[in-house]
Design brief:
Length: 97
């Protein structure tokens, strides 16, 4: 799975999104994901191409179709479910939150 996280550096929501995304990926996708983190101010063209309208935004690039998640990504169970992570892993995430 390839993920892109667009953030505005220095904001509390973006800092939480980075921590939450890394935690979810390591706990539930370890060895099966690529996470790229982009500061929107430094990558405006890329953010525009990925149709990012708010920060922070997580974009699942593949598998297709693309999916976008806006916010600090603190609701791990819902994020995992929407990413298509198997139900057992999503259930474990709900217990973690």
């Amino acid at each position: 799975m390839t993920l892109r996280l667009y953030v505005t550096m220095g904001t509390p929501a973006s800092s939480r999104a980075i921590v939450n995304t890394r935690r979810l990926c390591e706990q539930h996708l370890s060895g099966r994901y690529r996470l790229d983190i982009f500061n929107i101010a430094d990558h405006i063209d890329r953010a525009t191409a990925d149709e990012v309208i708010a920060s922070p935004t997580l974009v699942r690039m593949n598998p297709l179709p693309k999916r976008r998640f806006i916010g600090d990504l603190s609701n791990g169970g819902n994020i995992l479910s929407a990413l298509g992570v198997p139900a057992l892993a999503a259930g474990a995430a709900a217990e973690d939150t």
